[in-house]
Amino acid sequence: MRNLVYFMHTSLDGFVGGPNGEMNWISVDEEIFDFVATLTANADTALYGRTTYEMMQGYWPTAGDQPNASKHDKEHSVWYKNIPKVVLSTTLSQDGLENTTVISEDLEENINQIKNQPGKNILIFGSPKASHSLLEAGLVDEFWLFVNPVLLGQGIPLFKGVNELVKLRLIESKTFSCGVIALHYMRNDT
Hints:
Blueprint: E1 4-11, E2 15-17, H1 30-40, E3 43-49, H2 50-57, H3 60-63, H4 71-82, E4 85-88, E5 100-103, H5 107-115, E6 121-125, H6 128-136, E7 142-148, E8 156-157, E9 168-175, E10 181-187
Parallel strand pairs: 1-6, 1-7, 3-4, 3-6, 4-5
Antiparallel strand pairs: 2-8, 7-10, 9-10
Helix pairs in contact: 1-4
């Protein structure tokens, strides 16, 4: 069975976006991008909520083709174009979407069907509303949380809809020179 891996930047006080979804507080650099490339190498499916998918779709298909494209832009653009994408949305139409599946109902059944297919990990990038639905349904197997050295005080919470105890086991941690700490947790259901 494939794992669904939740990949998210968070503030130290547990917010993934400011009150209006702002993300200008997130620290990223080449060191983090290189590390993230190791995570995407272990995944062959990307999962998004509609808003994040539209943002990604507006950038990544051509990001690597730009004259000023960074190493990360070139590498991630190739990965993005080649992997199947799954979008959780009740408003997005499947029509005209290439290499993309829209799930609008039966979340648990549809996600488990994807998890039971052969392959590598399924990464969910950002997408707080979709992530909250996946967490509520108990479908997330691993967490990569990139804790940024900032307090927001308010905003979009990292965790919402978790209605029961979820035990996690710390697998590894990595500290980056910009002050971000990556924490890798797996569900510990035993």
